[in-house]
Automatic annotation (TrEMBL):
Keywords: Heme, Iron, Metal-binding, Oxidoreductase, Transferase. Pfam families: p450, Trp_DMAT. This is Cytochrome P450, putative. SUPFAM superfamilies: Cytochrome P450. Heme binds at residue 332. GO terms for molecular function: heme binding; iron ion binding; monooxygenase activity; oxidoreductase activity, acting on paired donors, with incorporation or reduction of molecular oxygen; transferase activity, transferring alkyl or aryl (other than methyl) groups. It comes from Talaromyces stipitatus (strain ATCC 10500 / CBS 375.48 / QM 6759 / NRRL 1006). InterPro entries: ABBA_NscD-like, Cyt_P450, Cyt_P450_E_grp-IV, Cyt_P450_sf, Cytochrome_P450_monoxygenase.
């Protein structure tokens, strides 16, 4: 910024002495932008503790997150700089505003806007790139460039995770409704009790009513279909660093397949010695319930229902183990949409039809594994409800 000669920059001087980038490009961007940020923090009268906190965050952001997008340091390899700043002459990718010390006018606030979309700095940043491209295309009066790796990845993910999985789950839902007439009756009764207007008027529930109405038994039924149907038989993650799981060393970069159809899910849990559990494993082992050996192989939606403090029956998603969408920040980003689709379709079908029992020859639960774990055949005997 070129005007910090009167600033002490104590936090910056300390951190820049001990924190460095792992290559020349990282070092360049950290030393350049770090001093700028330090000057802003001190000029804005941030407490020293907060200056350290903000600068350390900026260091991690610069050296471990942003640098790959910022490109090489200017002139490091003879290539032109990737970023051009309108407010500074150093070609940084960051625009700054600062306080002018003047006694005759209000401080002059400068800013620059750039079409970056809604999601910069979040896990949805790649989706934001699509929005950014659309904005920049409109600004420049050109066609949108849709043949990009980001869009191809999104379409592939949408096809693999957003189509076949939902249809497979619906097929399993129909199979279990047909095979469990008592469950079918309970679900239909629960839906009619929840959607009073539609039941009274002889209508179908509206999309808005389905989305906004809490039907615990419907939630429990869908969760049990996930547990025993196993549309997705495993969830895959790649280790980003060396890890130890129950005493087993897992190197960085390993594909880890987490099965959703084994112990704790559909068979009794394995016995794990406490001594080989990590601290986090010990702390979270009781987060989910454990099914008893008798019921774990049976289709029982009620296992997901409990009474709350008010005595009302509610859905309990952690009553036991099932993870059809994964968990944590890397869980399926289409989970809410999939749940809404399942609730809507199952509600309309169960509201409109009864499913009569099938002959034994076509009532089995044989499955095949292709893109999903799906029923080999799905035969139905729907009887319209008048």
């Amino acid at each position: 910024m070129g005007c910090d000669s009167k600033l002490q920059l104590k936090a910056w001087k300390t951190l820049s002495k001990y924190l460095h980038g792992s290559n020349e490009d990282q070092e360049y961007w950290w030393k350049l932008t770090g001093r700028h940020v330090a000057s802003l923090l001190e000029a804005a009268e941030y407490p020293l503790e907060k200056q350290y906190e903000c600068l350390f965050f900026h260091y991690r952001w610069t050296c471990f997150s942003k640098v790959p997008d910022m490109g090489p340091a200017p002139g490091s390899d003879g290539l032109p700089t990737k970023w051009k700043s309108l407010l500074s002459l150093d070609s940084t990718s960051i625009e700054y505003s600062w306080k002018w010390n003047t006694t005759i006018a209000e401080p002059d606030i400068r800013y620059v806007t750039e079409p970056i979309g809604q999601y910069p700095g979040t896990e949805l940043r790649d989706i934001g790139k699509l929005e950014s491209e659309a904005q920049m295309a409109r600004r420049d009066g050109r066609d949108i460039k849709i043949d990009t790796q980001v869009i191809r990845d999104e379409l592939f993910g949408f096809y693999m995770a957003g189509q076949e999985t939902t249809s497979t789950t619906l097929c399993w839902a129909m199979r279990y409704l047909t095979a469990n007439l008592n469950v079918q009756t309970k679900l239909r009764t629960a839906l009619r009790e929840a959607h009073v207007r539609a039941h009274r008027n002889g209508d179908l529930p509206s999309a808005q009513e389905i989305a906004q109405t809490d039907v615990p038994y419907l939630e429990a039924f869908i969760q049990e279909v996930h547990r025993v149907g196993n549309s997705v038989s495993s969830i895959v993650r790649v280790t980003t660093k060396d890890a130890v799981v129950l005493g087993h060393n897992i190197p960085e970069g390993t594909d880890v397949f987490m099965l959703t159809n084994g112990p704790n899910y559909k068979t009794p849990p394995l016995k794990i010695e406490e001594s080989i559990r990590s601290k986090t494993s010990r702390e979270t082992k009781d987060k989910f319930g454990v099914w008893d050996n008798w019921s774990i192989k049976r289709f029982i939606p009620e296992r997901w229902l409990i009474k709350n403090e008010e005595g009302r029956v509610v859905f309990n998603p952690v009553a036991g183990y099932t993870h059809p969408y994964g968990a944590g920040p890397r869980a399926c980003f289409g989970m809410k949409w999939a749940q809404l689709m399942l609730k809507s379709i199952i509600t309309i079908i169960v509201w409109s039809f009864e499913f009569a029992p099938l002959p034994p020859a076509i009532a089995d639960f044989k499955a095949i594994d292709v893109t999903t774990h799906r029923a080999e055949f799905t035969y139905l005997r729907p009887v319209p409800i008048h």
